[in-house]
Amino acid sequence: MMFKNSLFTIIIVLFIFSCKNNYDVDQNLTRSIRLENQEKAKASKFFSEIDYYLIKSDERFPLVNPYKTLLYGSRIFLLDKFQNFIFIYNQGGDLEKIIKDIGEGPDQFLQIDDFQVNNNEIIIKDGRTRKMLTYDFSGALISVEKNNFLLGDFYKGEGVELYYVNNDPQFEGRIIKSKNGKISSMIPMEPWMENKLFGSINGFMINPNTNTINYILPFGYQYLEFSNEGELIKQVEFDFGKYSFKSEQRARFNNFEDESKYLEGTEFIRNIFSIHPFGNGFLMYLMQENRNRHYVWLDENLHQKNQYAGIENDIDGMLLSLPPWTYSEDAIYFLYYPGQFINDYNSSFPNPQGDELKLNEGVHFFVNENKDLLESENFVLVKLKIK
To answer: Per the record, a Pfam family (predicted)?
Structure first.
């Protein structure tokens, strides 16, 4: 009888643990980041090859101010914040569609707070009209649903939604979770943060290696990781030592202009620009207010592995001085604005006719094929494939 009771207890315990997800909750962690190294990383240490994609602008509806950029399958999706359009390109740089249903009608939007691409659908959030609109890749509207949250980033999964609501004081926390009709808040908000707005070029990021959801909280150095069920499983605070712009310092300023004036030319880091998935770890990009830049490689637990003041392109010689703009499962991408790429190319290769250059390969072939287009209002997306 005792054996049967013990066996029953073991079965119950195993059942309980089998019902739980496989995530370990790892919150309130601190990671120290050192920024003393002034050397540049050799690109070949981290990347195997570099490809260039011309993003051709449409004469009637030119791409003006690309912001959030997503890679999905063979397509490139760019949110133009100036126009509130979403441009859809193929990897040949040809424009396939522009989603530009701006208006006050029931099937239109006024402002794109954020967008998401998943399951072959594009979801747009418009906080002004409090809607979410779903489109297919041809630009056809699939559905419109009510959304009660104002301006902010979002993630929408199966039965769960996450929101960064730009420090709206009507909520108790900075991140809102909506699941099965229930609203809950997480991450306490300090009084000085209330109603402070911030535009993120990344928003909630899906990590293709772990299927978790990552987010960098503005106005500080917090990194959050959620399960795809919306559970907070990791909360990390980065410490940049003497370069940290601390919460008590931020609280002294009521507006962006005064804060910017105080920070101008200093060594402080105001915000983390990006933390992109990179192989089994991450690549963090930072910029100090004195314009010093840092590329920081992190391991899977967000501990620092390497830090460099730049990237020396020993693969094809093209100058790489931009921040990482977006990511895919196997690559990091840089985005060049019109005229910027050809200027950097000319600086990188002041004598492109030299015998040492293979003008029929790589970046030189790309420039020779597209020289006229590179001198007009077109963008260039640069793919650095991860080793």
So the answer is: DUF5128
